[in-house]
Write a structure and sequence with these properties.
Elements: H1 10-19, H2 33-74, H3 86-93, H4 128-137, H5 142-148, E1 150-151, H6 169-202, H7 209-221, H8 229-235, H9 241-252, H10 258-263, E2 270-271, E3 276-277, E4 289-291, H11 296-309, H12 314-325, H13 332-335, H14 347-359, E5 369-370, H15 375-380
Parallel strand pairs: 1-5
Antiparallel strand pairs: 2-4, 3-4
Helix pairs in contact: 3-12, 6-9, 6-11, 9-14
């Protein structure tokens, strides 16, 4: 009969050898106590390295996706009343009831108190080469402007004729922005000074005869009925620089349009009774024209007055007033949503404006300041 062999365990062998005087030691493995500390230290270090490596990637992903998506959402066509204070918006909405629509059919009234439109017809038109030379001599370039947030005043009266033949869209855009940026800042500054004076008057318990005359002049200038101070406060405000540049770029094709070159018309404003340029291809029975201006600055002045008075832009002004009242910055991407009535294309016009602002980083110019005039600059003009 065959018997099965009994399996001998390691402990039995160890016990046998110990009885014979041998010393038996178990072989150490990597994870024995002597190596555990080193092993865990290595894993902890690797985890920390991975964490510090991933944090910048996660932050960048957040900025480029989550924050960007929020910005797109905020800039979409929404009812802004739902975003900001409902009560404040309704309070403003019940005001800004200016002159009737029929009075605003023509913007000729805008020029009644704009003496710049009486500028001599022989005001100098510089060539593109001369303007670029002036900009080089005064170290005026958009890179510095974006960096320093400062720009000198350049009272250039007309766009150069070469705008329609300048090769290179980037070169054309840069020249166009450099010409109109100081003009927009100058007109905004005038509005800011008037707004400051208005608030000073409002904070007084009694006003002088001169202050009352000034208020009456502003009521007329901004088309305010019944001497309503809140309406005047809402209307007397600036237009974001980036929005003004974008609209001028859209209306003139970055300065190459016939209306801009022949009539200094940067914003395509219409007139039915005043001097203007009839659009090519317009129907024979149409009576409107694109209004002409003696100098570019007057076109900018009339543009600000147009957005600040015309009934078509009441919603624009109300949103701007609510932003002001809530201590928020005037956002051109948001305010553009309320300019659908500026052009016949409506919503598509808004899309184009936003695209121009975004693609050309025009919001960089919203906080640019205009430097005081210099004797050196005046001698160069």
């Amino acid at each position: 009969m065959i018997s099965k062999k009994k399996k001998i365990t390691f402990n039995q062998v160890k016990e046998f050898l110990l009885k014979k005087g041998f010393i038996v030691k178990k072989k150490k493995t990597l994870l024995n106590n002597d190596f555990k500390a080193l092993y865990y230290t290595f894993l902890s270090s690797l985890a920390l390295i991975l964490i510090f490596f991933l944090i910048p990637i996660i932050v960048e992903f957040k900025n480029n996706t989550i924050i960007a998506s929020k910005e797109i959402e905020n800039n979409s066509k929404i009812d802004f009343e739902k975003v900001l204070d409902q009560k404040k918006f309704k309070e403003f909405e019940s005001t800004d009831e200016g002159l009737g629509t029929e009075y605003f059919e023509d913007i000729e009234y805008l020029l009644e108190d704009i003496p710049d439109n009486d500028a001599p017809d022989d005001s100098i038109r510089f060539s593109a080469q001369e303007i670029e030379k002036l900009f080089r001599e005064t170290d005026y370039n958009l890179i510095n402007v974006r960096k320093t947030k400062l720009v000198q005043p350049f009272p250039i009266a007309h766009l150069p004729e070469e705008m329609k033949i300048i090769q290179g869209i980037k070169k054309k855009k840069n020249l166009f922005i450099k010409i109109i940026l100081p003009l927009i800042l100058e007109e905004n500054n005038k509005v800011k000074l008037n707004r400051k004076k208005l608030f000073a008057i409002l904070n007084k318990s009694n006003n002088s005869a001169a202050e009352k005359r000034w208020l009456n002049q502003k009521f007329k200038q901004y088309g305010v009925l019944n001497k309503d101070l809140l309406t005047l406060k809402i209307r007397m405000d600036v237009i974001p620089v980036s929005l003004a540049i974008a609209q001028a770029a859209k209306e003139t094709g970055w300065g190459k349009s016939r209306f801009a070159l022949e009539g200094n018309a940067l914003f395509g404003q219409w007139t039915w009774s005043g001097e203007g340029i009839k659009p090519a291809g317009a129907d024979a029975d149409t009576t409107h024209k694109v209004m002409k201006f003696k100098i570019l600055k007057t076109s900018v002045k009339a543009y600000l007055r147009n957005l600040n008075t015309h009934l078509s832009y009441k919603k624009f002004r109300l949103v701007r007033a609510v932003l002001r009242d809530n201590g928020k910055k005037l956002d051109s991407m948001l305010l553009a949503n309320y300019l659908d009535k500026y052009a016949a294309t409506g919503e598509q016009y808004i899309v184009i404006l936003k695209k121009i602002i975004k693609q050309n980083n025009l919001k960089d110019f919203d906080d640019v300041q205009l430097m005081p005039s210099s004797i050196q600059l005046k001698s160069l003009i």
